Amino acid sequence: MSLNTTPRGQRLHIALFGRRNAGKSSLINALTGQEVAIVSDVPGTTTDPVAKAMEILPLGPVMIIDTAGIDDVGELGALRVKKSFEVLNRTDLALLVIDPGRGFGPYEEEVLKRCEEYKVPVVTVINKIDLYPEVVRNGLGVELASPKVFVSALTRQGIEELKQVIIQHAPKDWTMPTIVGDLIQPGDLVVLVIPIDKAAPKGRLILPQQQVIRDIIDHDAVAIMVKERELKHALSHLGVKPRLVITDASAYLKAAADTPPDVLFTSFSVLFARYKGDLETLVMGVKAVDKLRPGDRVLIAEACTHHPIEDDIGRVKIPRWLRSRVGGELHFDVVAGSGPLPENLGDYKLIVHCGACMLNRKEMLSRLMQARRAGVPIVNYGVIMAHMHGVLRRALSPFPALQALLEPAEEEMELELELLRRVRG
Amino acid sequence: MSLNTTPRGQRLHIALFGRRNAGKSSLINALTGQEVAIVSDVPGTTTDPVAKAMEILPLGPVMIIDTAGIDDVGELGALRVKKSFEVLNRTDLALLVIDPGRGFGPYEEEVLKRCEEYKVPVVTVINKIDLYPEVVRNGLGVELASPKVFVSALTRQGIEELKQVIIQHAPKDWTMPTIVGDLIQPGDLVVLVIPIDKAAPKGRLILPQQQVIRDIIDHDAVAIMVKERELKHALSHLGVKPRLVITDASAYLKAAADTPPDVLFTSFSVLFARYKGDLETLVMGVKAVDKLRPGDRVLIAEACTHHPIEDDIGRVKIPRWLRSRVGGELHFDVVAGSGPLPENLGDYKLIVHCGACMLNRKEMLSRLMQARRAGVPIVNYGVIMAHMHGVLRRALSPFPALQALLEPAEEEMELELELLRRVRG
């Protein structure tokens, strides 16, 4: 997940506007969890607007554009302000940061006017509520058409809500810049394992398979497709080791067994969990499976109202496996459809979400944020299926930071399963 | 194009019915151009209905089911008749063969009744018109709802028309059993060259690419996809030589140059010319290019009424190339849309047809048959483009019988071009 290999043009561009010392740079640090901007209480520390590639969890890679104070003074200051507004040309979303000690005035009006002019959605962020707690109750004394969020960049209060609002106002077609391109180098061989079963459409490839192939060849690498039965044969007929093997979840065990241990291994569903949402949140969620106790409530969340099939993955397979793992009864509720998750999320010990093929990234991230804010672990079908098959650690091999999140217990179970597989041949 | 590797289930199944000695077996020979059925004038030579895999040009692979005479006598004869009608369970199209000397009677009525019962379309074939020429004028004395064709299996009169009618009554979804599967063996490596230019849809593969990938992995082989720039690199990183390289037509020269001479080489458009129609007819058609003279009329036939783009392949590129090749003016007419080709086909020295992505195999074959019957050479964009790039012989390497159809002159030109390419590097 190298930041450097992500093309600038495809990241969500977020520009921050506000008077000098309103706390724009501190807010960036609070959003990214890093000390990246120069924070100082000397007004006017930021001069030329600089776009910086950053990562906001769980939003993923973004481009943050910090601008000079809109109240900058003097000839040079006026030039800085002019340059600040020019960034609206390449901005997806603007944050107007307000210091309650100074309030909403002509400077802030100017920002809203300019954003309207450039048709850039704007979110008003009232900062420093640790210093001015009364502003949350009393407001700014103006009626704003645009959404507003109260935060403290210092105490991080309201930051999660701000992320949620940022997601809501991101462009509809906002995606991750790449599905797999950041994991490979030009010229790499990438093997895709595609079982042909009754579910496979005749004479076609499903869209996720097409997207991964395109992403591979768009990144100057070589995409190699086989059924699971030919994987071993194909690997033995390549002159070099492939960089990565990506399997369909239905062939997890066979593909994992036939892929040499020193070759990176993952699945389409793990890649799309990252592409369509946030893999880290989901991996954190899977750990809650081990903490489930008989009698706990689990929410199965489906994005579409499909007709449940026999042996349905969300309504039959996963509940059956969870009950057997817990060794007792669990209470399952199912919600289906788009829009936010139900308000009583706090009643659940775990949310199991579908693969979200009918949701865009915005919608899925919104739901992940909703679960995070409610403090409820959330996992999706792809990640929990990998866990059920004992291959999650292996399927996270391209993401060592996430692998490290898994409990040692999980590792032991994997080793046991690996031994079992070898014994069975 | 081995007949044996084509699965039986996907071939067009044609069953022949008729009285003993109506000439069913001779008709099969006339359709296939081979002496395959046992022909004899002893009534009742055919006993148990036998399904045989055969090739009818230009229809491609079919399954012919020859049945016992429907007027067979005795206990054994009655059993044979019963078995004959049972084949209607696996028949796409029935031919009712009539000997005008015996006429249309209760036996024939029974066949039509049974076909209606099994919902199998039936074509009445009045045979032996060399012996009974008056039947063509006078008919059979009955009104038939189903189509009828007058033929002589002996002189081959009417056989081309019968093929046309067979195509018209084939099932709508009738296709070739495979696009590329008959050219490869299980475990083979097949490399697909897919240039990513502005015309490529973002994040997807076009349907023909998906179909070829699926066909390869469905046949237990390995599909390897690269952009043209990475072809050489990919070939050098495979442990074995690939069986076949298939290129997009837009990368003909680069892909041909980078593919070792001992590796089979073709293009998506050549494969689809075969899958969607008849490659032999089109290769015969390309030879007419060399016979064009200034002043000749050429018909450009497009299957859809797309908005012509600048540098349109059918309206600009091919006419420009043909004019320069002929060294003078040519008269081009363009027809666009589905349905039969215009009736004045005889006015043209060459028909250049589009890739037929909007036509099914039935419709494209119908048009090829129409051109054949009018005696006008027909070629399609894919085949003529390969010829224009001097790579047609190379692109026919999986089809040596068709390669042999090309003039030596063509070969010499290819060699010249090859030399030119090497000189230019």
Automatic annotation (TrEMBL), chains A, B:
Residues 13-128 form the G domain. The keyword Nucleotide-binding applies. SUPFAM superfamilies: P-loop containing nucleoside triphosphate hydrolases (SSF52540). GO terms for biological process: tRNA methylation; tRNA wobble uridine modification. One of its GO terms (cellular component) is cytoplasm. Pfam families: HydF_dimer, HydF_tetramer, MMR_HSR1. GO terms for molecular function: GTP binding. This is Small GTP-binding protein. It comes from Ammonifex degensii (strain DSM 10501 / KC4).
